[in-house]
Design goal:
The chain has 232 residues and is α+β, with helices and mostly antiparallel strands. The protein has two domains: 4-157, Jelly Rolls, CATH 2.60.120.10; 159-229, Arc Repressor Mutant, subunit A (Orthogonal Bundle). Helix content is 47%, strand content 22%. It is built from ten helices and eleven strands. The relative contact order is 0.13.
Length: 232
């Protein structure tokens, strides 16, 4: 990750850091060490890949705002989402690389305008040794990842593309039923092609489940999508 700003000169971003549960739970010396060591990275929307497979990891990455997407590549070149990192969360794969001296095993990109705090490895290790808040964050991050990956594996092994697409729409649409993603983006999350997604969405539109327009879709029949998920 290369888009960095000086934390001492960016009070707005410093405030974001100080409002995190992680910061609040630290001792006074821990708070000072975190503020002095952390470097903030501003990631504009559609800014490209931030971490690449095989990259050396120099610290922990904590999302302050926005959302990061961690994904892998299938043998045929399609992207498949592994999990998302939300505000207040850190990347467990990066932590594993940091503590075990490994190269990063996936790719990371910002899904929207995102701010990330990069905590140098030396600082994160020191905080982990003596700060219970950092220890709890690390354990929580691991358990959350396991839960999310188990859910994805269950979907992959037990559902066909129609069910996975219906489930994805219901999980990621906004509260007013709008999913602002292109067909290519949806395909990237589900590890398939845009053509497959386009064909399935045509079916959903024909049945009145969703309405599509450029770059987004709107849910028209929630029960219809739920029925698809429950198909045997």
């Amino acid at each position: 990750m290369s888009r960095s700003t000086d934390i001492s000169s960016t009070m707005k971003n410093l405030d974001k850091l100080k409002h995190l549960d992680l910061y609040v739970g630290l001792s006074e010396s821990g708070q000072e060490q975190l503020v002095q060591g952390a470097v903030l990275i501003d990631c504009p929307d559609s800014s490209g890949v931030l971490l690449c497979k095989g990259e050396a990891i120099s610290g922990a990455y904590l999302v302050l705002s926005g959302r990061l997407r961690v994904f892998t590549m299938t043998p045929n070149g399609n992207e498949a989402t592994l999990y998302f990192i939300h505000p207040g969360e850190t990347c467990v794969l990066a932590l594993n690389c940091l503590f075990n001296d490994l190269l990063y095993p996936a790719w990371v990109e910002a899904e929207s305008e995102t701010t990330v705090a990069h905590i140098p490895g030396k600082v994160y290790r020191a905080l982990f040794e003596r700060e219970s808040t950092v220890q709890e964050l690390t354990v929580q991050t691991l358990s959350t990842l396991v839960f999310r990956l188990m859910g994805e594996l269950e979907l992959i092994h037990s559902c066909h593309h129609r069910q996975r697409l219906a489930n994805f729409i219901l999980l990621h649409a906004s509260s007013n039923g709008i999913l602002r993603m292109t067909q290519q983006q949806i395909a990237g999350h589900l590890g398939t092609t845009r053509e497959v997604i386009a064909r399935l969405l045509q079916e959903f539109v024909a049945k009145g489940y969703v309405k599509t327009q450029r770059g987004e879709l709107a849910i028209q029949n929630t029960e219809g999508l739920r029925d698809i998920i429950s198909e045997t």
